């Protein structure tokens, strides 16, 4: 015998899919979600973003993203995924000055923006990098990195998954 719980589960799977979103839009319908489902959806969005970031930047710390409390405004629900600024920061190479002292460069304040927009250096910095395990190596910075759409691709994937439920957008920093 098929239970009500099973039917509701299958219905939610359909409505939260790209096919379900298309069906809803084509019939001018909207989904009303329960608050218990909202927490699950927000957690899935968070985990999907973190997985996309870790696939691109393996050194990214595991649980650095937090979905803040959502708010309702004019019938819409807004929730923000916040990433700890310290998780976005990357230290620079150490270099030797003309006087012989060792100093560290400024580093990068937002590694995600760097990967998203790419860069092209005229002259690459060289210096010493502290690898994990305590080893220090002399290295050259990468001179060029192409811009990458991995965050936009993640948003597209999530919007396809939850198109009937919510609209996900990126902050202008990552567009």
State the main characteristics.
175 residues, alpha+beta, 2 domains, two-stranded antiparallel sheet, two-stranded antiparallel ribbon, 6 helices
Structure description:
It is a single chain. The mean pLDDT is 81. Strand 8 and strand 9 (136-140) form a beta hairpin. The protein folds into 2 domains: 4-87 and 149-174, no CATH class; 89-145, no CATH class. By secondary structure, the protein is of the alpha+beta class. It contains 6 helices and 10 strands. A two-stranded antiparallel sheet has the order 1-4. Strands 2-3 form a two-stranded antiparallel ribbon. The chain is elongated and about 80 Å long. It has helices spanning 4-15, 18-26, 35-56, 85-88, 111-117, 150-162, and strands spanning 65-67, 71-73, 76-78, 81-83, 94-96, 102-104, 119-120, 126-130, 136-140, 144-145.
């Amino acid at each position: 015998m098929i239970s009500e719980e099973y039917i509701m589960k299958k219905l939610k799977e359909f409505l939260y899919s790209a096919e379900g979103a298309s069906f809803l839009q084509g019939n001018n319908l909207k989904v009303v979600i329960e608050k218990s489902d909202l927490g699950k959806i927000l957690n899935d969005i968070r985990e999907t973003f973190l997985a996309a970031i870790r696939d691109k930047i393996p050194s990214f710390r595991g649980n650095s993203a937090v979905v803040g409390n959502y708010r309702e405004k004019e019938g819409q629900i807004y929730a923000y995924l916040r990433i700890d600024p310290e998780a976005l920061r990357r230290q620079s190479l150490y270099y030797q000055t003309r006087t012989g002292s060792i100093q560290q460069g400024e580093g990068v304040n937002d590694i995600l923006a760097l990967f998203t927009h790419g860069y092209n250096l005229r002259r690459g910095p060289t210096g010493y990098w502290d690898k994990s395990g305590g080893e220090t190596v002399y290295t050259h910075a990468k001179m060029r990195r192409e811009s990458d759409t991995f965050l936009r691709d993640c948003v597209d994937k999530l919007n396809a998954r939850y198109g009937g439920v919510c609209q996900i957008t990126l902050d202008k920093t990552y567009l």
